[in-house]
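Step 1: inspect the first sequence and its tokens.
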Amino acid sequence: MANVSVLNMEGNEVGTIELNDAVFGVEINEHLVHLAVVRQLANKRQGTQKAKTRSEVRGGGRKPWRQKGTGHARQGSIRAPQWTGGGVVFAPVPRDYSVKMNRKERLAALKSALTAKVQDNKLIVVDDLKFEAIKTKDMQNVLNNLKAEKALVVTPAVDQNVVLSARNIPEVQTATVNTINVYDVMKHKTLVLTKDAVASIEEVYA
């Protein structure tokens, strides 16, 4: 089991914590991590893109000129794709972009992402993260003390003071144990977990 230092909000070491290998020490499966990221990005797409084909564009019901004898190329409609104002040849239509992934695969991908942060020394554990008031400056000072840049901050449950204090800091995002996902973990350079969040993750995902 990996041992990680536990820091306080001032950035001083106050102890160590032993991480569960069932969550933070698995064999990394890059393929599943890739699939999980692709799935999440694909599932974000609305799929409401639409353009009109030649049959949907208004007008063009009459043949613009007779078939032969004009010297022009033969035309059947002024709404054919080659005409200005005509329809699109292979127009996009509303569709479902969602990608399916088995629950066990999603879990394995998340464990792989968490393990990768541990192996890269990009996992920071804080003994507690509490603010008396909503203040961006306080949150920035804590992140500076922890030397955490482009961080994903995970707490056991929603703490409005933490969420709102971090909201205006660029490239910093907050999440709870139940909402963490592979894409957010991999997108951020540093993963900051509270001690309680580590216990909750091991309880939920082990």
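Step 2: inspect the second sequence and its tokens, then contrast the two.
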Amino acid sequence: MKKLKRSGRLVDMTNFLLQHPHELISLGYFTERYESAKSSVSEDLTIIKEIFETQGVGALRTVAGASGGVQYVPKVEKSTAELFVDGLCEKLENKERLLPGGYLYMMDILGRPRTMNEVGKMFASVFADRQIDAIVTVAMKGIPLGYAIGTYLDVPVSIVRRDHRVTEGSTVSINYVSGSSRRIQTMSLARRSLPEGSNVLVVDDFMKAGGTVSGMIELLQEFRANVAGIGVLVEAEGAGERLVDDYVSIARVEEVNEKTKNIRVVPGNFLTKLEKERSR
């Protein structure tokens, strides 16, 4: 890269940091990249840090020592999160979403990259300090959510499936009880997809009683994994006894009336959890 003026360095450095969340980048990398002195790079990072924090983009952490450097940690402002959550609740209340059995159509939300990116950043903001090694989610609708969060936490995504695939090699399978239907179902995870002892964030797109999430937690015990957190895009109220209780949800469905086609959706516990994490 050719030598840049400060304005050019600031633009390029900001773009680089935004594309590499949670990655520890040495100052030496930037000095070589821009052919600049460490003092100049440090001054640039101070400017970027101030802008990130005042604009609610995130935090810029400095790690001292020979193996240290700088790390961009995505964060979301409470006011920004409130606007997004309110907008999501409004979309979910559209009566055209109602499907037979009281289910809600959500693929337009899960299939929109910009929306999933916002959700991913929100969850990454809550779980930023949990030392997560991997995301675990269930196919198929949990995949876009899992990858969105994994992008902002800079961790791989492992996909739990309900059927075995030859291309994934040997798998670990368990039988679990579905929370809502109380049926016995099977889920499996490829042995090579998750190292033993990993700190895992379990995510799901929709949770009623929590049977699927509970099943994933049970499956992870076979990998001696530690569940560092649970993230749910939408939870349903009044689904009977919950099988999981410590989770973060963006929205909560309080009522679905198939006869009147009335859907009432309110914010989940995300905003409360966000405040609690920041007060630690």
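Step 3: confirm your contrast with the notes below.
DSSP finds nine helices and twelve strands in the chain. The chain has two domains: 6-74, 78-278.
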